[in-house]
From TrEMBL, chain A:
Residues 188-299 form the Phospholipid/glycerol acyltransferase domain. This is Glycerol-3-phosphate acyltransferase 4. GO terms for cellular component: endoplasmic reticulum; membrane. Keywords: Acyltransferase, Lipid biosynthesis, Lipid metabolism, Membrane, Phospholipid biosynthesis, Phospholipid metabolism, Transferase, Transmembrane, Transmembrane helix. Belongs to the 1-acyl-sn-glycerol-3-phosphate acyltransferase family. The keyword Cell inner membrane does not apply. The gene is GPAT4. It comes from Sparus aurata (Gilthead sea bream). The keyword Transferase applies.
TrEMBL record, chain B:
One of its GO terms (molecular function) is calcium ion binding. Its main location: membrane. Gene3D superfamilies: EF-hand (1.10.238.10). GO terms for biological process: protein transport. It comes from Sparus aurata. It comes from the Eukaryota. This is Calcineurin-like EF-hand protein 2. Pfam families: EF-hand_7 (PF13499). It is found in: Cell membrane; Cytoplasm; Nucleus. The gene is chp2. Keywords: Calcium, Cell membrane, Cytoplasm, Lipoprotein, Membrane, Metal-binding, Myristate, Nucleus, Phosphoprotein, Protein transport, Repeat, Transport.
Length: 421, 194
């Protein structure tokens, strides 16, 4: 059925005014710096090539001015926090980024789509989801009462997998798992890029993980407490989250116990719109155990899974998910990685991040996901000033700061913004 | 594509902007969406804080000045029309459609672009870049990376080179003259997505 839908959409795409999503060049900081070094001498025209030492020119301001206005019109970071644009319309008004009324036929089709989605698919899915959640609650509590440990482990796995399968069906998620031989094993950490809370269900569908997160109240809290009864998860109180050592200790204790399932961690710390991978917080990479990277890529054609937490609450989001056509995604299990000699946590994190980005076809950005809510650190501005002054004043004073273009400077700001994760 | 103009109805001054600036309808619609995105509290106006949320701008050494260009002294809010007219300075000069009755010179002509850049320097809008103003810009672009003397030196040289009538300040004409070898159109244009 989905194949038919795709074909129809392609037909329509030919009929109508297609909006093409033209990506800007990568926001990689290094590239920005290099362009600064190249463009400013260019700006000055031929006359100043004759001078032995470069001087300030009035035209230098053009470079910064243009960069600034470009970023006002569109920028690499904030657009990662809103849903991705589609090339063709998938008959969902919510991905209606720039489409206008084209023809009556299309509107009729869309109306039909709405009927199907809200009238048939949604109720079906909601019932399924309700069944799934209540089953989790009931069965995990029951299993928790069992005396025998091995029986408990065995049953837990069965129960979990069954419940997650139900949840997955309730979202109509079509998941393709690649490289399952690299599936995370006990006593390690599983690391993945974060797009939506549904990531958890998608991954848990194929294996048992221990989750880590904040302890909530209400329905979610009940589910959390029930889950803990049958298998070890790590739930934090809000007050504890700030204490990094406590977090690290609980993590390492869990990991050291080889009978415990691998922990699922999302180091970005916030939901990104699945076009890029943002900075990984280094906390989970400091523990020194095996890291199993996983790349998750959603195909937004049948339904965009990204959760824009500033726009929609959780319930609203789930309703939207359940009334899309389907959630299509691919999961790649990458070979396990370990921290190497002489590599510190941040470099290790970057290495893992690069692997995940490469596999998932995502842009590897150095920006901190925390920029969703907070402003940029002054260190970045200083970097730009440093480079510009290099162009002007020359290399002599910069000798001791030679490594400024490379990672260490960026690390300083990483440490600052990753504090307390 | 005739349906384009019908979608501009919800954009304030849409038709007027289409005529006055060189933007196409699709570009204006896109800019409107960006405007709405930046306008976090949905007031229909932008304030300086809204522009400050763009990380790239925040870390730009002259970010504050660029924001200042959008908000001239006395104006605390920016409506969509002004937003577009200022951005029109950055259209490539060749995208101007010849319109009958285009009264004044378009914003994206070389002179228009130069004026915009001139105003980045000339904060008090007195028509001249004083030595002080030049020093301030240099300080923003260089931060603490150079000493005060070096800064004075650089400013001194720049003024001497450009200042033709020796009044210790750079007027707009002197500014224009010192940049005559620079390809302004290329350096001060950005690519607006369709």
């Amino acid at each position: 059925m989905l194949l038919w839908a795709t074909l129809r959409m392609e037909m329509e795409a030919k009929e109508k005014n297609q909006q093409l999503y033209k990506p800007y060049s990568s926001g990689n900081m290094l590239k920005c710096y290099q362009s600064l070094m190249l463009i400013i001498p260019e700006l000055r025209g031929s006359a100043s090539c004759l001078h032995s030492e470069p001087e300030f020119e009035m035209a230098d301001i053009f470079y910064f001015c243009r960069r600034g206005v470009e970023s006002i019109v569109d920028d690499e970071v904030t657009k990662r926090f809103s849903a991705q644009e589609l090339e063709t319309w998938n008959l969902l008004t919510r991905s209606h980024y720039n489409f206008r009324h084209i023809s009556l036929r299309l509107t009729v089709l869309w109306g039909l789509g709405v009927l199907i989605r809200y009238g048939i698919l949604l109720p079906l899915r909601v019932t399924l989801a309700a069944t799934g959640i209540s089953l989790i609650l009931v069965l995990t509590t029951l299993v928790g009462f069992l005396p025998s440990r091995e029986l408990r482990f065995f049953l837990t796995e069965k129960v979990h997998v069954m419940c997650y399968r139900i949840c997955v069906r309730s979202l109509t998620a079509m998941i393709t798992y690649h490289n399952r031989e690299n599936k995370p094993k006990n006593g390690g950490i599983c690391v993945a890029n974060h797009t939506t809370p549904i990531d958890v269900i998608i991954l848990a569908n194929d294996g048992c993980y221990s989750l880590i997160g904040q302890a909530h109240r209400g329905l979610l809290g009940m589910v959390q407490r029930a889950m803990v009864k049958s298998s070890p998860h790590i739930w934090f109180d809000r007050s504890e989250v700030k204490d990094r050592h406590l977090v690290a200790k609980r993590l390492s204790d869990h990991v050291a116990d080889k009978t415990k399932q691998p922990i699922l961690i999302f180091p970005e710390g916030t939901c990104i719109n699945n076009t890029s991978v943002m900075m990984f917080k280094k906390g989970s990479f400091e523990i020194g155990c095996t890291v199993y990277p996983v790349a998750i890529k959603y195909d937004p054609l049948f339904g965009d899974a990204f959760w824009n937490s500033s726009k929609f609450g959780m319930v609203n989001y789930l309703l939207r998910m359940m009334s899309s056509w389907a959630i299509v995604c691919s999961v790649w299990y990458l070979p396990p990685m370990n921290r190497e000699e002489g590599e510190d946590a941040v470099q290790f994190a970057n290495r893992v991040k690069a692997a995940i980005a490469a596999q998932g076809g995502l842009v590897d950005l150095i920006w901190d996901g925390g920029l969703k809510r907070a402003k940029v650190k002054d260190a970045f501005k200083e970097e730009q000033q440093k480079l510009y002054s290099k162009v002007l004043v020359g290399e002599q004073e910069q000798g001791d700061n030679k490594s400024s273009e490379e990672n260490p400077e960026e690390d300083k700001s990483y440490h600052g913004s990753a504090n307390g994760q | 594509m005739g349906s384009n103009s019908s979608n501009m109805n919800h954009i304030p001054d849409g038709q007027q902007l289409l005529q006055d600036t060189g933007f196409s309808a699709a570009q204006i619609i896109r800019l409107y969406e960006r405007f709405e995105f930046l306008d976090k509290d949905n007031t229909g106006h932008l304030r300086p804080e809204d522009l400050e949320t763009v990380p790239d701008l925040d870390m730009n050494p002259i970010g504050a000045r660029i924001i200042g260009a959008f908000f001239p002294p006395g104006k605390e809010t920016l409506d969509f029309g002004s937003f577009v007219r200022i951005l029109a300075h950055f259209l490539p000069a060749d995208s101007n459609r010849t319109r009958a009755g285009a009264q004044q010179e378009p914003a994206n002509s070389t002179t228009g672009k130069l004026r915009f850049a001139f105003q980045l320097y000339d904060q008090d809008r007195d028509g001249k870049i004083s030595r002080d103003e030049l020093l301030q810009v240099l300080r923003s672009m260089l931060g603490l990376q150079v000493t005060e003397e070096q800064l004075q030196c650089i400013a001194e040289r720049a003024i001497q080179e450009a200042d033709a009538d020796k009044d210790d300040a750079i007027s707009f004409d002197e500014f224009r003259k010192s940049l005559e070898k620079v390809d302004i159109d290329h350096k001060m244009s950005i690519r607006f997505l369709r």
